């Protein structure tokens, strides 16, 4: 399957590199308006189309990786040529009905919501489609995009919540990592050393749950001995409303994602 990628920015380039592992670099062509990004695509080993017409002529599937504000213009340009092609979008906040309005209800459309993890092939990606792909085509899409990370097939109604949890999620995790590292500095470590300790602790904790199973609560119980040190810290977090704060944080983020659309 030949892929055309429109927009070679942060996400377009990350997807191109990840997709090259599943479909092969030779099956990816890029179209980008900015000269320096076109040069970057060439340096990365991708063919670059001079216009959208050429891109469409050489693609079976089209990945739209431009900002939401630029999407309408791209759709207007491609609308006459997408019959029988699969159109994939990663734009935040634009629902499938937006694309169908311009491209027609019969368009084969896949909507993805990735996060920055795609940059290292470890994205957390939501996936849905508008019902016009055959089972075989959707299966193929699932296979192809697995190279970008973990795929979650969810209804479009949950995309805003997914955006809060997985799209913005890395920023919340980075906040937590930074706070822990700064706490390490207060205890007497250098920032680099503290950060390394925190990252290894995080990776080990995630690995434990992934490999040995169980939910976080069970693991908390395992590392919390009666009247020991850990429960002191946990009790403080609870008194300060840690869980409630995190839950409200996701709620606020999800509300904002919904508000941006209306
Ligand atoms: N970044 C994230 O973490 C993230 C997460 C989830 C979803 N997304 C979605 O991913 C999409 C891309 O985001 P991004 O951060 O990769 O944006 P980006 O870095 O700005 O990349 C978009 C690129 O497309 C170019 N472009 C604009 N109009 C074009 C056109 N008509 N034809 C070809 N190229 C065009 C832009 O050029 P100019 O700069 O000149 O406009 C830019 O180089 C967005 O829709 C965003 O909602 C991003």
Please explain how this structure is put together:
The protein is an alpha/beta fold. It has 2 domains: 3-154, 3-Layer(aba) Sandwich (Rossmann fold); 167-261, ProC C-terminal domain-like fold, CATH 1.10.3730. It is built from 12 helices and 8 strands. It has helices at residues 10-23, 35-43, 52-57, 68-78, 96-103, 135-145, 159-167, 169-187, 191-212, 216-223, 229-239, 242-261, and strands at 3-6, 28-31, 47-48, 61-64, 86-89, 108-113, 123-129, 149-153. An 8-stranded mixed sheet has the order 3-2-1-4-5-6-7-8, sandwiched between helices. It is elongated and about 70 Å long. The mean pLDDT is 95. Residues 6-7, 9-12, 31-34, 37, 65-68, 70, 73-74, 90-92, 114-116, 167 line the site of NADP nicotinamide-adenine-dinucleotide phosphate (NAP). NADP nicotinamide-adenine-dinucleotide phosphate is lined by residues 6-7, 9-12, 31-34, 37, 65-68, 70, 73-74, 90-92, 114-116, 167.
Query: What's the SSE pattern?
Result: EHEHEHEHEHEEHEHHHHHH
CATH fold call of the largest domain: Rossmann fold
Radius of gyration (Å): 22 Å
Count of separate DSSP helical elements? 12
List the ligand species: NADP nicotinamide-adenine-dinucleotide phosphate
Sheet with the most strands, sense and barrel status:
8 strands, mixed
Bulk shape: elongated
CATH architecture of the largest domain: 3-Layer(aba) Sandwich
**Can you give the helix content as a percent range?**
55-70%
Number of domains: 2
């Amino acid at each position: 399957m030949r892929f055309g990628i429109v927009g070679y920015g942060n996400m377009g380039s990350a997807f191109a590199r990840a997709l090259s592992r599943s479909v092969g670099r030779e099956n990816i062509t890029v179209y980008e308006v900015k000269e320096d990004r076109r040069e970057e695509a060439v340096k990365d080993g991708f063919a670059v189309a001079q216009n959208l017409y050429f891109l469409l002529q050489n693609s079976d599937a089209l990945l739209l990786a431009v900002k939401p504000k630029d999407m309408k213009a791209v759709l207007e340009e491609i609308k006459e040529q997408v019959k029988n092609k699969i159109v994939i979008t990663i734009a935040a906040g634009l629902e499938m009905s937006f694309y169908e309005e311009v491209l027609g209800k019969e368009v084969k459309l896949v909507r993805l919501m990735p996060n920055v993890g795609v940059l290292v092939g470890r994205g957390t990606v939501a996936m849905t489609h508008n019902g016009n792909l055959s089972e075989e085509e959707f299966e193929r899409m699932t296979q192809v995009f697995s190279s970008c990370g973990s795929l979650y097939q969810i209804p479009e109604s949950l995309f805003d919540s997914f955006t809060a949890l997985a799209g913005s999620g890395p920023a919340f995790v980075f906040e937590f990592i930074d706070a822990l590292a700064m706490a390490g500095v207060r205890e007497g470590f250098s920032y680099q050393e503290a950060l390394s300790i925190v990252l290894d602790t995080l990776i080990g904790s995630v690995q434990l749950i992934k490999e040995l199973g169980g939910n976080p609560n069970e693991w908390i119980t395992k590392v919390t001995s009666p009247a020991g040190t850990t429960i002191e810290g946990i009790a403080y977090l609870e008194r300060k409303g840690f869980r409630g704060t995190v839950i409200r944080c996701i709620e606020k983020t999800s509300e904002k994602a919904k508000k941006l659309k209306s």
